Fold:
Amino acid sequence: DMAVFLRDTPIKRKLMLVILLASGLALFLMGSALITYELITFRRSLAVNIGVLAEIVGSNSTAALAFQDAKSAREILNALSAERQVTAAAIYNEKGEIFAHFPTDVPLTDFSKTPRPDGHRFEGAHLEMCRPIMLEGSRLGTIYLKAGLEEMYSRFAVYGALLLAVTACAALVAIGLTTTLQKRISQPILE
Structure:
């Protein structure tokens, strides 16, 4: 029983336990707040970055769509290989059919047959973005981009390791501080 354990524990250990619990809780709350903030800002900035990329690719694809030049559309999408976060992309024509896709070795069945609604959504371990491809006010088609969240997961792994290291260091400092203060605090109480 916890009450019996605390009652029978020497005051030195009780003091150490209180300091360790307080510092551990403070570190846990700080780490949780930091990771939550980072999750929100990372997702928001990823959506903005992929949105800008979709706008650029979409505006570069207007001529290819207007002239039904699938080869040019594939070349434009192949430039996305420089963006390691982008795992898949597709250009849909105004009928909603796939006009070109990236990477080319991925089968068409891995893509939605028709474009999803405009906007972005997080699904599983990736972000999906759909934006209209416009020319002089009329819609020529849709650009679809899919980005992986591996960078976010690797960043959180680093944060977790740092949090564990800081917690271990804080525990050692708390134990050292408690041991040093034992004589000044617990001795007068015992007397």
About this structure: The longest strand covers residues 138-148. The helical segments are 2-8, 11-60, 62-66, 70-78, 150-190. The radius of gyration is 28 Å.
